[in-house]
# Entry
Amino acid sequence: MTAAAVDTAAAKRAARPFAPFEWMVAFRYLRARNAQKSISVIAGFSFLGIVLGVAALIVVMSVMNGFRHDLMEKMIGLNGHMFLQGIETPLTDYDAVAERVGKVPGVTLALPLVEGQAFATTQYGSAGALVRGVKGQDLERLPGVAGHITQGSLDGFDRGQGLAVGAKLAERLGLRVGDNVTIIAPHGAETPFGVTPRMKAYPVAAIFQIGMSTFDNTFIFMPLAEAQTFFNEEGQANVIEVYVQNPDDMDAMRRRIEPAQQRPMIDTDWRQLNRSFFDVLAVESNVMFAILALIMLVAALNIISGLIMLVQDKGRAIAVLRTMGATRGAVMRIFLITGATIGVVGTFVGLILGLLVAYNVEPIRRFLMWMTGQNLFPSEFYFLSQLPSRVEPTDVAAVVGLALALSIAATIYPSWRAAKLDPVEALRYE
# Structure
């Protein structure tokens, strides 16, 4: 190959978009010089703003997703996804209805229960409780209880007339497995003098801890037959709770379950009972996303101001590049690379930092509690015993995409302004 051909090939490589020459000049402009300290400071704050904005958004969205997932799993997982209540006639055929509904595709469990408010008391204290009568085989399959037994066992639950008590309630009442607790129901036997409260002592067969303070502090499970007698519901159930594989597709499940009931019933699902609660969580998540996105917007504005100052400072250098043959497109791409580098590097540093924090939220919380001596996440207020975090790839992709879009968009005007610079005017007074 001749020298002329080599020179021509080199010229073509240098002339193509985003050539090494453009990257070299762009990276030189990123380096701090004594005369460019103010520009470097602005670039540093822009970089820091992008990092903090991306990291904060990933952490906050992960915690909000964790809250929603854990609350749904615990609240709905213990209460069921759909509730069937008998109308016109008492629900005496609960076993047959539960068996038919349990065979519907997509249904994982259908259990009849008797539920009533009661008062639990021991020599160490007393507290209100929600007593649920269930069959032992159903209790062992209940998602929120079976795998969370901390003391005792559910073996022989139906035969022993023992109770399964929430851990926080047991702690308040000073109960351990084998101790007796007295349950008092306001509606007992009818006498000539009116209805008298019903009172009976039961042994504690098991203690469970779901991890949600509201349930651990309230729930008591009793054998179904005993609950029917205790609450004057002989031979019938209050409700049939239905658990499904996909709680977010309740409309389709309702259409499948209704034909299997074969009797008049009122159908209620978890969305109707908890709609306002989860709507509030969704609103909070969207508002937090919008607020924290402002951090990245401010950082993007800093990129604009920093690049405009850089263009003004490099006016003579731009004019020299133009006179040496650099096109307007090449000048524009140089400043695009300069500004976008701040945003892209800041985005990926923020991504790594955000994921590290999001995956270690609970250890960080415990460390801060140890450092400050303060309870930073009281379970009685937040329903959960530990700070949840659930990283959703779609949310992470949205945050990264937003940060990259803002960073690149912020470079367009300053780069266009640099490309429009007239070399004659720039060199006139030099």
Notes: Residues 89-263 form one domain. The two ends are 42 Å apart (CA to CA). Residues 3-12 have pLDDT under 50 and may be disordered. The chain has two domains: 12-71+278-427, 89-263.
